[in-house]
Amino acid sequence: MIGVLRRYGTIVGFVGIVLFFWISLPETFMTGRNWLNISQQVSMLTVTAAAMTIVMVMGDFDLSVGTMASLAGVVAAVLFKLGFGVPLAVSAALATGLVGGALNGILVSYIGILPFIATLATLTVFSGFAFLISDGRTIFGRDIPEAFSGFARSGVPLGDLVSIPALTIAALAFVLIVWIVLEQTVFGRRLYAIGGNSRAALLAGVYVRRLRLAAFVLTGVGAAIAGLLYASRVASANPTQGDGLMLDAIAAVFLGMTMSEEWEPRVHATLIGVFILGVLDNGLTQMSVDSYIRDILVGAIILAAVASSSLWRRDTG
Amino acid sequence: MTDLAALHDVTKAYAGVPALRGARLTIAPGEVHALVGENGAGKSTLIKILAGVTPPDAASIAIDGRSVSIDTPHAAADLGLRFIHQELDVVPALSVAENIFLGRRYPMRPAGFIDWRTLGQAATEAMGRLGITDIDPRRKMARLGLGDQMLVRLSAAFLDRGTAPARLYVMDEPTASLNGEETERLFRVLREIRDTGRSVLYVTHRLDEVMRLCDRVTVMRGGETISTAATSDTSEAAIIRDMIGRPVDEAYPRRATPVSDETVLDVDDLAGAGIGPVRLAVKAGEIVGLAGLSGAGQSEVLRLLMAADRRTGRVRVAAKPQQAAQPPQAWRSGLAYVPRERRSEGLMLTRSIAANVTLPHLRLFARGGFLNRGSEREAVSAAGDEVRLVARGPDQHCYKLSGGNQQKVLFARALLERPRILLLDEPTRGVDVGAKFDIYTLIREVSSRGTAILIASSDFPELLGMCDRIIVMRDGRIGGVLPAADLSEEDLLTHCYGHAAAAPATAAASGA
Prior knowledge:
Distance between the termini of chain A: 16 Å
Low-confidence stretches of chain B: 500-512
Number of helices of chain A: 14
CATH topology of chain A: ABC transporter involved in vitamin B12 uptake, BtuC
Oligomer: heterodimer
Mean pLDDT of chain B: 87
CATH class of chain A: Mainly Alpha
Shape of chain A: globular
Radius of gyration of chain A: 20 Å
Structural class of chain B: alpha/beta
Mean pLDDT of chain A: 92
Largest interface: A-B, 22 and 31 residues
Distance between the termini of chain B: 27 Å
Strand content of chain B: 15-25%
Number of strands of chain B: 22
Number of helices of chain B: 18
Order of helices and strands of chain A: HHHHHHEHEEHHHHEHHH
Helix content of chain A: over 70%
Largest sheet of chain B: 6 strands, mixed
Shape of chain B: globular
Strand content of chain A: under 5%
Strand order of the largest sheet of chain A: 1-4
């Protein structure tokens, strides 16, 4: 019984939250349209959290995902402003994520700086670059081509009135790719081995350093994708717009980890963590709850999930 | 004569699973009493009950003939019982003296200041009981070697400040990380304790220590006490029979196939930090041991062969040069490795058996980078059967396995691809007798298939029982190569000390 609660406590909590909003907001909450709306609202967070899961599988962190998302959006927008087309601007933004991720990976795995410290430093560096190349201003309006911002407004029609937003599809596609990489490939198996015991993994024939580097590169690229989705959604880019994604992404991964007996990050569990945060945000906004109170509630729920999961773990020793 | 401690009809079950079923144990004053048994036999539970850590379901306990109940660790301390646990629980950031005083009141000056001078003196005194004079009590624990750290932990038990005088010392595998010299030192102190009328309860897996050190031995199996006998009236074979409930012809299976002429491992000028140059060769089907005092470089030679540490020199595997800068390349060249520290260097404890076993071999179960779990499971099941792994299945997590089965997981990993060369570092450390015998049998089987095997071990009887030749390491270099046949443990120890130091070494062994 306790084992079931420990394993499924977070899901039970999620269902409880959904029921609460369903009862409190009987007309608007439990509708297909609202859920599609939630999925669109959380799409950037979904991508960021899935990318974060990749490094957290190895027991590492990447605190720079948020400012990387900002930087990637700004890079694309600046290139639009200079008159370059969508393919080049998007590629440059993705390349920025790749280079930034590689920088994190080299600092962590080849130079041996703790991920927390290394990515805290690059967090600042990426943010500085975003301000530098944007001149600290928001790039918007006619500078952003219709082909780019239109993506976020498009979708696959579902009946006459609703459609599945393109952002939702993009985010789910990204989660699926990360799931395949982590769960079905040799690469993913080795990342989990590094997370289980990196010293043992090296002695058992895993190229720990280069895999760690590769994982940070993937996370960097994922953060850049999230930044592009963000810029497309708001049809603009400013040097801080993605910054808030980092804390929520870590929170989502942690919420997901409470669902695993071994406290392991799994990307499908991360997705549930994202939806817990997304549903709370959506429901509380609809109930016109002050956003400061929302923050307090979200923090308390994360603490409750992690604490109960740790307490049960101690009991069963 | 009244027994110092007598435990009768001790019963304890964990969640309905019996751990002790009417176990008994009596310890006379002035004896070193061995307590042996396989993992799960109930030794630790019995000790925890005596220590007041675990409450028994039923028990009658008498100290000096008076019935007592031991409800807390404090009650045990007040009765004069001292416990030294198997795990090396030290605080690396604190000084030696502070580690000795862990869990006790520090000597104080008025106004709540610590009396460092008295603290240091008491620590020096406690260490002096073990004959340790070369460790500064002010040094940070982290700066000491493993063996020295264990000695410091042990000396804490000899600190008599502020507690009832010690009557009985209970030690759980105290020699696990000690070298030969340190072990002798400890044994000398234990005999001294005995000669002053106090007693020692000595828990160990090493039967040679039982025969050498102890006066009586109690064997447990399946939560019951099977036998108690004077060591002069019993034999290692009889003890093993009682432990595993069946007769064992020999502790070490004999070589059944001849050694081939083909040299599989050929090493020249191998050197790393503080090690080498080392030159050695191992033939197909041959088992070669690496012996030495702790820190003489046995483990490091294996690590250099695996390219786990920075190295220079020439390594040839089956006449082909091994170009390896990292362990993955060493595995690919035909080497397989069971590291020294099972939990910290060997296993991903929270991962499944399958994930642990196939880690170096994943390319065999992959197509285009994607895992084929079906073929992986099949291979893991087969490998598990080969090493006689007892587990629920390939998906079971490693932290749920016993020490012996965890070690078998590492063997399954090492043997999955039929390596040319098998490197084993302390292959049976912390493994119970039954699993030990399985591992020795397995090593013989692997050797008979023509695998060259190199074993680094501090268990000298194991090296003498399994190896064809023994390479003695001294200060990171090869001090000599000895044929194992007709070599005695004393000879081997003498060689480990080197000829210059041979005289004091023998004195330590015989005078103790």
